[in-house]
Amino acid sequence: MHQIKRLLTLAAVLIAVTSPALANSLVVYSPQGEENVQWIVDQAKAAGYDVQVLRAPGGELFDRLVAEKNNPQADVVLGMVDTSMALLKKNGLFQPYTPAWAADLPAQYKDKEGLSTNSGAHRSS
């Protein structure tokens, strides 16, 4: 299970770093613990990216994302609960993106509109 979680987390980083809208710098919002966040930072740095992580409680990040809707600061939203993600999606806070390798992900991890993955890893607009 831990290996699957890390694979899906890496998938989130790859979504972000393969997006043409992003340069060599990523801003990640996450309520996840230090171990998960540090692993993501290490993987992205190894790929040549500078990563800034804002770790905060999920409710605080939710409110921040809503407040930043018209001027988003996060490139990736990682590890928020499904209910928060559904509300953010419903309110148009995510940008569609489907990485080339998404075909290899099991269907239960895919969003039909390409706005998120059900792995706790989501890309903000």
Descriptive key words:
alpha/beta; globular; disordered C terminus; 38% helix; 5 strands; single chain; 125 residues; five-stranded mixed beta sheet
Report the portion of residues in β strands: 15-25%
Please tell me how large the radius of gyration is.
13 Å
Overall 3D shape: globular
The largest pleated sheet is described as: 5 strands, mixed
What's the pLDDT, averaged over the residues? 76
What percent of residues adopt helix (DSSP H or I)?
A: 25-40%
- Straight-line distance between termini: 29 Å
Order of strands across the widest beta sheet? 2-1-3-5-4
This entry's quaternary arrangement is single chain
- Sketch the topology as an H/E string, one letter per element: HEHEHEHEE
Q: What structural class do helix, strand and pairing data support?
A: alpha/beta
The number of distinct β-strands equals 5
List segments where confidence is low: pLDDT < 50 over at least 5 consecutive residues. Answer: 1-10, 13-22, 120-125
Number of helices: 4
Task: Give a structural overview.
By secondary structure, the protein is an alpha/beta fold. It has four helices and five strands. It has a five-stranded mixed β-sheet with strand order 2-1-3-5-4, with helices on one face. α2 links the parallel β1 and β2. α1 crosses α2.
SSE map:
Blueprint: H1 2-17, E1 25-30, H2 34-46, E2 50-55, H3 58-67, E3 76-78, H4 82-90, E4 116-117, E5 121-123
Parallel strand pairs: 1-2, 1-3
Antiparallel strand pairs: 3-5, 4-5
